[in-house]
Design goal:
mainly alpha, 0% strand
């Protein structure tokens, strides 16, 4: 299984939110978590900007009649669910 997908980013952001909400933290621990949270948000912002750029590039490529799939971010599909036909280029 590949790590570091956009869905993993969501998990990291919520984990950081939970750490920040821990009422048992000392003042020093809160300061550390705030610094860590700021770093996580800065990296997450860059990841999302890059993904947005990939989607914009894929749209431009698609608008010119070419297959944009190689320019889109990888999407992890839950193997327990049926794959979305649209992801395979089939209209639903």
């Amino acid at each position: 299984m590949t790590k570091n997908r956009l869905t993993d980013l969501n998990d990291h952001l919520f984990a950081q939110l939970e750490r920040l909400g821990n009422e048992d933290l000392t003042t020093e621990q809160i300061e550390t978590e705030v610094k860590r949270g700021n770093a996580v948000v800065a990296v997450a912002d860059q990841i999302l900007r890059h993904a947005t750029l990939q989607v914009q590039a894929a749209k431009i490529i698609s608008d010119h009649g070419l297959d944009p799939r190689s320019h889109l971010p990888q999407v992890e599909i839950n193997p327990l669910h049926k794959p979305l036909r649209a992801l395979n280029g089939v209209k639903q």
